[in-house]
Amino acid sequence: MGSSRLGYRSHSFLNEYIQRNECKRMMEIGVADGENARNMIRVAIRNFSPEEVEYYGFDLFGGNNDFKLSLVRQKLKEMKCKFKLFKGDSVETLPEVVETLPKMSLIFIDGGHSHATVKSDWENSKCLMHNETAVFFHNYDFSGPKMVVDNIPRENYQVKIIHPKSDSVTALVKKRV
Ligand SMILES: C[S@@+](CC[C@H](N)C(=O)[O-])C[C@H]1O[C@@H](n2cnc3c(N)ncnc32)[C@H](O)[C@@H]1O
């Protein structure tokens, strides 16, 4: 898990990309405790008012009660941006809502790391890409993400493997236009 001056669970490569490319609509698959969400939003609102920033998060949010979901919801409410959280297996939840979601500036795929889950997350994320959307696959060095990324057709997508300092190897995928 990465860290930077923004604190634990902050990925400097995401924060730098958000700042430089003025991202305001972000999706994260694998929200965990919402710390990375909060940091990404914090960077986005340097360029936009909080009301203009949107965050969409998918996670299991652990188990039968909504305790973890409530904690993340409370953190994000404090950011005053627009946000939606989806609880459950992204293999099911993301296809259920994908047609209702807008195109994203940035998508961070960091949920389940099995090949089947990452493949499903990528297939659905593709529907939410415009010509400038950046899709980051965390832990490219894990077999699931690696197999998915390695099979992305290079004639349609640019794929860059990045080695952030003190963080996991990550793939950055953009449409070739
Ligand atoms: C590595 S953590 C995410 C870390 C977070 N992105 C960050 O940067 O701090 C992975 C998260 O994915 C969630 N997860 C695992 N499998 C999932 C699945 N099939 N669908 C949705 N979320 C999943 C876990 O509950 C966990 O919170």
Concise summary:
By secondary structure, the protein is α/β, with parallel strands linked by helices.
Shape: globular
Bound molecules: S-adenosylmethionine
Secondary-structure element series: EEHEHEHEHEHEHEE
- Structural category is alpha/beta
Report the CATH superfamily: Vaccinia Virus protein VP39
Do you know the CATH topology?
A: Rossmann fold
> How would a crystallographer describe the biggest sheet?
7 strands, mixed
CATH architectural type: 3-Layer(aba) Sandwich
Radius of gyration: 15 Å
Overall mean pLDDT stands at 95
Q: What is the tally of beta strands?
A: 9
The domain tally reads 1
The percent range for strand residues is 25-35%
What distance separates the N and C termini?
A: 32 Å
Widest sheet: strand ordering: 5-4-3-6-7-9-8
What is the class in the CATH system? Alpha Beta
The helix fraction, in percent, is 25-40%
- Count of DSSP-assigned helices: 6
* Contiguous uncertain segments of 5+ residues: 1-8
